[in-house]
Design goal:
The protein has 197 residues and is α/β, with parallel strands linked by helices. The protein contains five helices and ten strands, in the order ααααββββββββββα. It folds into two domains: 54 residues, no CATH class; 111 residues, no CATH class. The strands form two sheets. The protein has a five-stranded parallel beta sheet, with no helix packed on it. It has a five-stranded parallel beta sheet with strand order 2-4-6-10-8, with no helix packed on it. Helix 2 packs antiparallel against helix 3. The longest helix is centred in the N-terminal third of the chain and has 16 residues.
Length: 197
C-alpha cells in the first residue's frame, strides 16, 4: 500500500467492505469467532487505510483494501446500532429506518417496533450477534424472512410469518448469529388483551 493511500481517511463503506471480508473469513473457518470480534473492533474504529489493513493482512485476497465508491444515502435510511457488552433499547414512537445494521459482541439490542407510528413497508436488517442477543418485536401483521442469517453455534428464533401478509412491514434479515441469539416475535399480550378488560 502506498504512503499516500495509507494516509487517506476511510469511509463507512470502506469499513463495511472490510467487515464483510472478515465475516466471510469466519464462515470459511479461517478465523475464530473471538478473532472476528477483535478484528471487527479494529475495523470499525479505523480512521485511515493504514489502520484498516492489519486485521485483513493474513486473509486471502484481502491484502489491499481499495476505497469504496461513495453512494449517497438519504437521511435516516441506514442506521447502525452497536454495543460491545452494554445494551441498546428502542421503544415507543421512534423513527424506524428502511435499513438497520445491528452489531453486538456480548451485549443486547432490543428494538420494539410496535409503538412506531410510521413504518417502512420493507425493512432490511443486517445482524451480527457475536455472543450477545438481538430481539426484534414486531407489530401485528408484520413478517420476517430470516433465511439469510448464518449461524455457527447461535440460535435464530422467529414467531412471526415468513412471507408478507400485506398488512404490516416485512423484514428481510441477513448476517450472522455467531454464538448469540436472534429473536423475532410479536408483542406479548397482557392481561387486558387476554381477558378484554
Amino acid at each position: 500500500m502506498g504512503d499516500d493511500h495509507a494516509r487517506l481517511r476511510v469511509s463507512d463503506a470502506d469499513r463495511e467492505a472490510a467487515a464483510q471480508q472478515l465475516n466471510r473469513a469466519m464462515s470459511e473457518g479461517r478465523i475464530t469467532l473471538s478473532e472476528l470480534e477483535e478484528r471487527l473492533g479494529i475495523v470499525y474504529g479505523a480512521k485511515t487505510f493504514a489502520e484498516l489493513e492489519p486485521p485483513l493482512a493474513d486473509l486471502p485476497g484481502a491484502a489491499v483494501v481499495l476505497p469504496q465508491a461513495a453512494v449517497p444515502v438519504p437521511a435516516r435510511e441506514l442506521v447502525h446500532l452497536s454495543t460491545e457488552m452494554g445494551s441498546v433499547k428502542r421503544t415507543g414512537d421512534w423513527p424506524v429506518p428502511s435499513r438497520l445494521r445491528l452489531t453486538t459482541s456480548m451485549g443486547s439490542i432490543h428494538l420494539d417496533l410496535t409503538g412506531a407510528r410510521t413504518l417502512p413497508r420493507r425493512i432490511d436488517v443486517d445482524v451480527s450477534t457475536g455472543m450477545g442477543s438481538i430481539t426484534l418485536v414486531l407489530p401485528e401483521g408484520a413478517s420476517a424472512d430470516v433465511d439469510g442469517v448464518k449461524t455457527s453455534w447461535g440460535t435464530v428464533k422467529t414467531k412471526v410469518p415468513h412471507t408478507p401478509s400485506g398488512s404490516g412491514p416485512h423484514l428481510t434479515v441477513t448476517g450472522s448469529a455467531g454464538m448469540g441469539t436472534l429473536s423475532i416475535r410479536g408483542a406479548r399480550k397482557g392481561m387486558k388483551d387476554w381477558f378484554g378488560a
